Amino acid sequence: MARDAQVAARSMERQVHVLKASTSGEIDEAFATFARERTDALFVAPDTFFTSRRVQFAIMAARHAIPASYAVREFAEVGGLMTYGTRLEDMYSQVGT
C-alpha cells in the first residue's frame, strides 16, 4: 500500500511520508511530527492496532487540524473526518460466505 501511494504521489508531484507506530506513544509522536512538518493530509492504513486506537487518532487529527481518511467506518463513527471503507462487522460477516 505504501509503495502504491509513493508511485501515485510522484505522478502528481507530491510527497508521501510513511510513519509507523506500534504503541499509543508512537502515535502521539507521529502526530507531533505531522504538526511540525505541516502535513497536508493523513491516511491511516488498515491495521488492527490502529483500529483499537481509533479514538486517539480522531482526537489527535482534530487537535492538530489534519484532515484524515481511514480505511474502516469505525473511525468516522468516533469522530474521524472520513472513511472510504466498510464497517468491520460487515467485512468479517462476509468471511465465511
Shape: globular
What proportion strand? 5-15%
What summary fits the major beta sheet? Answer: 3 strands, parallel
Q: How much helicity do the residues have?
A: 40-55%
In N-to-C order, the SSE pattern is: HHEHHEHEH
Overall average residue pLDDT: 88
Radius of gyration: 14 Å
What order do the strands of the largest sheet run in, or round the barrel if closed? Answer: 1-2-3
Poorly predicted sequence stretches spanning 5 or more consecutive residues: none
Q: Count all strands and give the number.
A: 3
Q: How would you classify the helix and strand content by structural class?
A: mainly alpha
Number of helices: 6
Distance between the termini: 26 Å
Structural domains: how many: 1
Which features does this protein show?
97 residues; 3 strands; 8% strand
Question: How would you describe this protein?
Answer:
- By secondary structure, the chain is mostly helical.
- It has one domain (2-93).
- The protein contains six helices and three strands.
- The model has no long low-confidence stretch (mean pLDDT 88).
List the helices and strands and how they pair.
Blueprint: H1 2-11, H2 24-37, E1 42-44, H3 48-52, H4 54-63, E2 68-70, H5 73-77, E3 82-83, H6 88-93
Parallel strand pairs: 1-2, 2-3
Concise account of the structure shown:
The protein has 97 residues and is mainly alpha-helical.
